[in-house]
Amino acid sequence: MEGQIPEPDSAPWKRTVIEAFGYGILGHLAATAAGELRGHSDRLRSEVTLLVADQMEAVQATLREGIHSVSEADELITGTTRVCKELVPELAWQAVAKTVHETAEAIAGGAGAA
Hints:
Structural class: mainly alpha
Order of helices and strands: HHH
Number of domains: 1
Shape: elongated
Helix content: over 70%
Oligomer: single chain
């Protein structure tokens, strides 16, 4: 059956249609978020620069004093990783959350894209 198109009333057909519809919604929400991020790029760039600068100051201070244990090195890496993987994405989400939620609600309500 591989390579054959399932019948329109079959379970594989319905599952594929539902998945495609879901991915379409997800793509629309991602495009909405990307557009919103572009609209806030200067502010986000400033906020991210401050976060990174603060972390770099902490890293440089620690390096000047010297790293005397694996746990100190791990703490340094953990702090830097947190900025990159948690704080920066959180800033981005805060910038787009309202618009993404409004767009999702509009889609759920049948109003189409916001």
